Amino acid sequence: MKYSIVKNDYNESKKIADELIDLLKNKKWVEDNNNPNYIFVIGGDGTFLKAAEIFNKLLEEVIFVPIKSGGIGFYTNHNRISDIREILSNIENQKPIEISVLEANDYKVINEIKIINNLRPLEADVLIDGELLETFKGTGLVFSTSGGSTGFAKSHNGAVIIDENNIFQMLEIAAVSNNNFRTLNAPVIFSRKHNVEIFIRKSNDVEIIVDSRKCNLPKTNLIKIKLSEKNIKLISKNSEKLTKTKILNSIFTTNKPYN
C-alpha cells in the first residue's frame, strides 16, 4: 500500500507524523507522494485543503485519513491523535465516508469557488439549467459546498448546510442595489440535479479563487458549476459519534449538552 503525509508546521504534528511513519513502515507501506492510495492529513481544515490542492487531480482515486492537530476542523475533527493505531489496524477494510465536491469546469472544489472583482463591479450572467436568473453586478459570487458552508459562506450570511452530499449554494457579495438595478441578493440553494453557468461579461480584473488557490479565468469567460457525481473519500473512526451537528455545537454555539 502507498501513502503520503501532509501536515501543518506545529511541532506536535511533526511528532505525530514521525510516529505514523514508523507504524506504516511496520505494515510494509511505501511512501509515494505522486500516486498514493492513502493521504494522511495532520492538522486542521487548512491543512486538509492544502492536501486537496496538492492531489487535486487524484481526488476521486485516493482516500484521505485526516487527524486533527491544531486549528478548527470540520473535515479533520472526526479523528483524534489517539485514534491512529486503531485506524491503521483496520484501515483497508473500513468503508470511507464521502464528502461532496463541486465541479467548476476542470476545477474540483472542496469548500468554495469565489468569482471576485475587487477593483470594479463584477458583471456576470447567472443561468440555472440554461435559464437566466439574473445579471449580477457587485463584488462577486461565491458557490459553496456543504462542508464549505461553515467558512467563508457563513461569514457572508450564507446558509449552514447540514446535508453532506446533495446541496450547494450561491451567495452574492456586495451586490449593486439602486432604483435602476437590482439582483436577487439572497442565498440560492441548489440540488444535485442543477447545473449553473456563470458568464463573465467583462473579464478585466476578475479573479477565480478555488478554495485556497487562484485559478485562471477560462478563455470562454464561462464557468459551469455542479455537484460532482464522485465524492472525496475520507476514513473516519468517529463518523457515527461525531455528527456535523455536534461539530457545529462544539465550534459555534454554547457547547452545552441537550438535556
Structural class label? alpha+beta
End-to-end separation in angstroms reads 46 Å
CATH superfamily descriptor of the largest domain: Probable inorganic polyphosphate/atp-NAD kinase, domain 2
Give the class-level CATH name of the largest domain. Answer: Mainly Beta
Largest pleated sheet? 11 strands, antiparallel
Characterize the overall form: elongated
Radius of gyration: 20 Å
- The helix fraction, in percent, is 10-25%
**Domains counted in the coordinates: how many?**
2
Low-confidence region ranges: none
**Secondary-structure element pattern, one letter each:** EHEEHEHEEEEEEHEEEEEEEH
SS summary, helix count? 5
CATH architect. name of the largest domain: Sandwich
Strand residue percentage:
25-35%
Structure summary, number of beta strands: 17
What's the mean pLDDT score? 89
Describe the protein in words.
The protein is built from 5 helices and 17 strands. The radius of gyration is 20 Å and the shape is elongated. The protein is 17% helix and 34% strand. The chain folds into 2 domains: 2-100 and 231-252, Probable inorganic polyphosphate/atp-NAD kinase, domain 1 (Rossmann fold, 3-Layer(aba) Sandwich); 102-227, Tumour Suppressor Smad4 (Sandwich). 37% of the residues are buried. The protein has 259 residues and is of the alpha+beta class.
Structural features:
single chain; 259 residues; alpha+beta; Rossmann fold; eleven-stranded antiparallel beta sheet; six-stranded mixed beta sheet; 5 helices; elongated; kinase; NADP
